[in-house]
Amino acid sequence: MKIILLGYMGSGKSTLGKALAAAKNVPFVDLDVYVATAEKMSVQDIFATKGEIYFRKKETFYLQEILQREGDCILSLGGGTPCFGNNMELIKAEGNISIYLKYLPKSLAKRLAESTSRPLLKELKKEDLEDFIRKHLFERNTFYTQATHSLAMDGLTKEESLQQILTILSNYSL
User: Fold this and answer.
1) 14 appears as a binding residue in the annotation
2) 131's torsion region: left (phi>0), alpha (psi -120 to 50) or beta?
């Protein structure tokens, strides 16, 4: 079984994914790290030198590769992964459990305010960040809400978030 964490950038997918993998004693895969390793360049460099379309095609290829592997794993996606190509259909395939880590735009803006490594944010002024996030969430909501489960993250600590996810997963045989 694949447990897939999705949500906007900065929602804690990688941090919670690692903690969840440790709690469930299964491998953890961060899709962005997987793509960067396979392509032998950072996501930022792929965006800068080859463009977003190239990145999205590779992202879909590697997503499919990971999902077709035997065995359980925790997989954290990039924020835009569910929104391109047939990625959401791959994510929703039988045997996968997806969890949308949902934050309010204001909370995400606060979490991302100091980020300098996000390709989509590098040219953005801080005062425009919340509106940018609000627009993106509006566009991506159709995809994010197709997840098997949605978890409201505002106000939760990492430990509380992990407990909520473990409670969701207790309904499944893993």
Assistant:
1) yes
2) alpha
Residue 3 three-state SS: strand
Q: How many residues are present in the chain?
A: 174
Is 15 labeled as ligand-binding?
yes
Q: In the chain, what is the straight-line distance between the N-terminal and C-terminal CA atoms, in Å?
A: 7
Q: Is 134 annotated as a binding residue?
A: no
Is 42 annotated to bind ligand?
A: no
Residue 106 known to bind ligand: no
CB 10 within 8 A of CB 111: yes
Instruction: Look up residue 33 and give its amino acid.
Output: V
Domain boundaries defined on the chain:
1-167
Helix (H) or strand (E) holding 166: helix 158-169
Tens digits of residue pLDDT in 38-96: 999 998 899 889 998 999 999 999 999 999 998 999 999 999 999 999 999 999 998 89
pLDDT in tens, 136-165: 999 999 999 999 999 999 999 999 999 999
Per the annotation, does 10 bind a ligand?
yes
> pTM of this prediction?
0.92
Pick the CATH number of 1-167 from 3.20.20.80, 3.40.50.300, 3.60.15.10, 3.40.50.2000: 3.40.50.300
- Amino acid identity, position 17: G
Instruction: Tell me whether residue 125 is annotated as binding.
Output: no
